[in-house]
Specification:
heterodimer; A: alpha+beta; Enolase-like, domain 1; five-stranded antiparallel beta sheet; 13 strands; about 30% helix; B: alpha+beta; 3 domains; seven-stranded mixed beta sheet; globular
């Protein structure tokens, strides 16, 4: 860990002003950042602590949705009655992530901004374009069991590890931000994450000094919600594949559906094509097959993660069959 | 006492505190933080060290730039091969020299040691050490280097090969044959407490607070390495947060701290980080195991063969003895076991959690399941058919062996009769459900161990030995033995362990700890009983000890009236003829029920039961805890644990506990362990046998067999992950 200065922000404006400076980094729960600092994967020169900001509320919005403060702890969000009743997919996704101890500490925006778990990213002696642009990608021809099969580039095949963000992707969440000029934005989550392309070190559309203040959820769409996480052990493991699904169906016919996937891509993966295959379609194996094919269009394995294609297909089958069972 | 004959009736045969499920005597210290582990020992003026690891697998340090680190805040010393002293050499069990030169023989080998006023300063400065290497092509992967494998010749392990009869002919002509190859992966001990040491010198005498399972052995290794007399080395290790074999030998933390402390004339403290432990310390080699079984049509084994490949540094002879149990577990006239060791340029491979049996049984006991199916035999029946009447290779009797009762009692308790031998027939929602079993066996070694017991005038009894308690319950069982032998409540027994200034002891490893140290204490107590009886003018043979008194006939004397300023006695146990004339093992049977998700291939254990016989159980609670802990290891071995080697770099890619998976609570549902009554009077005066590692032995195989029963997929490449199962599950499309 490199020596750094620490400052506690008393206002969002102050935090934004501090965060815009080179080498500054916002810290909230710290569950990911501190680990990365110990390994010198992250080497901020100044930490801006936002934990004292009054951004830890969950409020209903006038349109019947929910506004989740940036500092709301994952445990609190998962246990919130509104979330449990109306956004079950989010509650389940949160509880499928990390451990109880980590969820008690981890925040909403920290969860959104957590870094990949790629082994090579975590080891500063190994090439990694995300950590050290231009150094190469050790995962491409290395051990890539947990890596992405969709949205990759020749520079990076790392996945985004969040469960929460996958559910938010299915729920069409918006990320609210403010910058040092006090300008606010509401970024649709679909536009929030960026694919690696030639710049895997840039993971989101946030600008320097732009601070997440909240995540808003529109009213939930009709239908049943489900989060299925497939992993190597029963708890405390990142998703090999996860599915956040919201399916509105009746008597063997699907009216509409939303599908988002974790573990497959550098960002929570939503497939509009797949959702179209399900709209006004019978809940049959043929439909599920064509949906899975749409999700996996353009998918590419790198050896160790080839199994994610059949796994995705099978998991999606299982989820859709369960959700449309009459 | 030397174990040369059966021990006969003794004090422990009458019901007493030994065997009772009493709580750990050190429990309150542990849960209140009162138990001090090596890194927690406070010392004034202490400095902190941080290791810089080699980031190549094989090659040479071309240049090492330390100036920036030396100038960094708080830094007192940067040790490298340029300023480290000459040290003694040997294999990893004899010496552990560090920073010996520019050669890198394995990834993660320490290339520098930064010492500073605080841990944080040492760590920050460690990242400033700039090392440049000339990399050479190393040999890293076991499978790619089998053609160079040789016959290992260790001085402290059984011979690599054994043969009885003519295996080749018998196997070739056997009516029913099975020839299968199983592989087990590289594994890391993953104990909770990291390797840690606090070193300090007083003149030419070195004192180390260090996490080490075998202190007397460690003392010798440190003396050899530092080239100082063994009596000048003192190791202190009263509490150890798990070892699993990873702390059997001396690791770099102890030597680096000792060298730095000597140079700086100040105490130096170090704890390896979790990530460093994977490379800087030892691991278990992966194995490639070919098992061949030939039987007659009824299922009698005619030929049994087990060939094992493992890997280690070219300078090491330690092999993974995965075929050792195959020499003794089942009958059969024609037998062949062979171990081959491939020279590899990766960190030292050594003992981990039942070395040998734990991975060997994962092959053998699944092969037994496979041939049982070929024979259309129940797996338990097959094992009963092949129960030997004597050790089939050594042709000596077993000291005690109750494998069949374990299997039968386990079958009864588990509901084995409900098993459908045809795979894939039972389902619970989307879960395919199966059950499986496997036999458990683990050798029962006895090591030289000594003890001193002293009774003070206040009625407090102090037990001392250089024994360790790595979390197994040694403090507790020793307190129970002393309490029963001297007729005192356990509250009056003060057990002091973990200090080489106490009598030499076996240490904790290989399941020998309780039997060896407990027997030494038993002998010491016997000697003290004799002294007390003579002082009281009573016949030692008939004197009874109870309630703090000694009694004979209608006479009774308080012990405190006899001891004067204090009375003590020594005791000692040594292996003897019994350890050659009897085949000594603990036994058991594992039963597991698993669910396999028919869509995703996820495997979840639903129930586990182990039924064991291990001689006298010294504490029913700590014994059960140990057995359950071993069974949890079995879950990890079957389903989770694997270090992945990246052959481009010669390193273990997933070197942290986020990606080196061990089972978590949610993976361990309904689990129980039961010990059946048994006494083994050829084993040791306690009539106990080793239990520390018995729980892991066979546990993983029972899970793999249950997976096969659940879904019909026989995965011979551990761990059994969903990726390996997917293509074998019912089609979804």
């Amino acid at each position: 860990m490199k020596a750094f200065t620490y400052q506690r922000a008393d206002s969002t404006a102050q935090a934004a002003a501090a965060a815009v400076k080179p080498g500054a980094k916002i810290i909230a729960g710290g569950t990911n950042l501190l680990d990365l600092m110990k390994l010198q994967v992250e080497t901020p020169s100044n930490l801006v602590d936002i934990n004292r900001l009054p951004l830890d509320k969950i409020e209903e919005t006038p349109d019947g949705g929910l506004r989740i403060g940036t500092l709301v702890r994952n445990s609190d969000l998962a246990a919130d009655p509104h979330v449990r009743q109306r956004y079950g997919v989010l509650s389940r996704a949160l509880l499928a992530g990390a451990s109880a101890q980590l969820r008690n500490k981890a925040t909403t925006s920290g969860n959104l901004l957590q870094r990949t778990r790629c082994y090579y990213f975590y080891d500063v002696t190994k090439p990694c374009n995300k950590r050290s642009p231009g150094s190469g990608c050790a995962a491409l021809a290395g051990f890539n069991r947990i890596h992405a099969v969709l949205g990759t580039s020749e520079h990076c095949i790392a996945t985004h590890p969040s469960d929460m963000a996958v559910a938010m992707q299915a729920l069409d969440a918006k990320v609210e931000t403010v910058n040092r000029q006090g300008e606010t934005k509401a970024i649709p989550i679909a536009e929030f994450y960026r694919l690696p392309g030639n710049t895997p070190e840039i993971e989101t559309s946030l600008k320097p000094g732009e601070i997440i203040t909240a995540v808003t959820l529109p009213p939930p769409p009709p239908g049943v919600q489900l989060y299925r996480k497939v992993r190597d052990r029963a708890s405390y493991a990142f998703a090999l594949v996860s599915v956040a699904a919201i399916v509105d169906s009746n008597r063997g016919r699907i009216r509409s559906a939303r599908l988002a996937f974790g573990g497959l891509a550098p960002k929570p993966w939503r497939s509009a094509q797949a959702e179209q295959r399900l709209a006004n379609a019978p809940s049959t194996t043929t439909t599920f097959n064509s949906t899975a094919a749409a999700v996996l269009e353009g998918a590419r394995g790198f050896g160790g993660n080839d199994f994610k294609m059949p796994l995705t297909r099978r998991t999606l089958h299982s989820v859709l069959a369960e959700m449309t069972r009459t | 006492m030397e174990m040369n004959s059966p021990v006969g009736a003794n004090v422990l045969d009458t019901p007493g505190i030994v065997g009772k499920p009493i709580d750990r005597v050190d429990g309150p210290l542990k849960v209140t933080g009162g138990a001090r582990y090596a890194y927690e020992v406070q010392e004034n003026n202490v400095l902190y060290g941080f290791v810089v690891e080699a980031s190549i697998g094989k090659g040479r340090i071309k240049s090492i730039e330390t100036r920036a680190a030396e100038k960094a805040p708080g830094v007192a010393l940067v040790l490298t091969h340029r300023n480290a002293p000459a040290q003694g050499t040997g294999n990893h069990r004899e010496a552990h020299p560090v920073l010996t030169g520019p050669q890198v023989t394995g990834y993660g080998q320490p290339v520098a040691f930064v010492v500073a006023n605080s841990f944080e300063e040492a760590r920050a400065a460690a990242y400033l050490v700039n090392v440049k290497y000339d990399r050479s092509n190393g040999k890293y992967a076991l499978r790619a280097n089998l053609n160079e494998a040789r016959v290992p010749k260790p001085s402290d392990a059984p011979a690599a090969d054994s043969a009885v009869g003519d295996f080749a002919i018998a196997f070739a002509s056997a009516p029913v044959q099975l020839d299968v190859t199983y592989t087990t992966p590289l594994q890391s001990h993953a104990m909770m407490e990291p390797h840690a040491t606090l070193a300090m010198w007083d003149g030419d005498k070195l004192m180390l607070h260090t996490a080490n399972q075998m202190l007397n052995q460690g003392q010798q290794v440190i003396a050899t390495t530092l080239k100082i007399p063994v009596e000048n080395v003192r190791l202190i290790s009263p509490f150890i947060g798990g070892g699993f074999g990873g702390k059997l030998w001396v690791n770099a933390d102890a030597i680096l701290a000792a060298i730095a402390s000597r140079q700086l004339k100040r105490p130096v403290k170090i704890a390896l980080t979790r990530q460093q432990i994977f490379h800087v310390t030892t691991h278990r080699s992966d194995t490639i195991q070919r098992v061949r079984l030939g039987t007659d049509r009824e299922g009698h084994i005619l030929a049994i063969g087990h060939d094992v490949f493992s890997g280690n540094l070219p300078s090491e002879q330690t092999y993974e003895g995965a075929a050792l149990q195959t020499r003794t577990l089942y009958a059969g006239p024609n037998r062949l076991t062979r171990h081959r060791l491939a020279p590899l340029d990766i960190p030292v491979a050594s003992s981990m959690r039942a070395p040998g049996e734990s991975v060997g049984l994962m092959a053998l006991e699944c092969a037994m399941d496979e041939i049982a199916e070929k024979l259309n035999l129940d797996p338990i029946e097959l094992r009963v058919l092949n129960e030997p009447s004597e050790d089939p290779e050594k042709h000596i009797p077993y000291s005690s062996r109750h494998l069949i009762p374990c299997m039968q009692e386990g079958a009864r308790r588990f509901g084995w009769d409900k098993r459908n031998p045809k795979p894939g027939q039972v389902r619970d929602g989307r879960w395919l459900v199966g059950i499986g079993m496997a036999a458990a066996t683990r050798g029962n070694p006895l090591l030289l161990s000594k003890a001193n017991v002293r009774l003070g005038p206040d009625g407090t009894c102090t037990v001392r030995m250089a024994m360790t308690d790595i979390g197994t319950g040694t403090y507790t069982i020793l307190a129970q033995i002393a309490a029963e032998m001297l007729g005192l409540p356990t509250e009056r027994i003060q057990v002091e362990l973990g200090d080489t200034s106490f009598p030499q002891a076996a240490g904790s490893g290989g399941s020998w700890g309780a039997g060896s140290s407990g027997s030494a204490l038993f002998e010491a107590c016997n000697a003290l009983r004799e002294k007390l009886a003579r002082t009281a003018g009573m016949d030692p043979a008939t004197a009874r000890f109870a309630n703090g008194s000694i009694a004979s006939g209608d006479q009774s004397r308080k012990l405190t009236d006899l001891v004067g300023v204090g009375m003590d006695a020594d005791g000692e146990i040594r292996p003897g003829r019994n350890n050659k004339d009897f085949s000594q093992q603990s036994y058991g049977a594992h039963f597991a029920e698993v669910g396999v998700d028919e869509d995703t291939g996820e495997v979840r254990v639903r129930r586990m039961l182990g039924v064991f016989t291990a001689g006298r159980v010294l504490n029913a609670k700590t014994a059960r805890s140990q057995a359950i802990g071993g069974m949890v290891f079995g879950v990890g071995a079957a389903l989770h644990e694997e270090m992945t080697l990246d052959p481009r770099f010669g390193y273990f890619v997933n070197h942290d506990l986020a990606e080196y998976h061990v089972p978590v609570h949610a993976d361990i549902p309904d689990i129980d362990a039961v010990f059946l009554a048994e006494l083994d009077d050829q084993s040791n005066p306690l009539k106990s046998k080793g239990i520390g590692e018995l729980g892991i032995c066979g546990a993983g195989a029972s899970i793999a067999n249950a997976i096969y029963n659940a879904c019909g997929a026989r995965i011979r490449d551990y761990p059994v992950t969903l990726a390996k199962l997917l293509s074998r599950l019912p089609v979804r499309a």
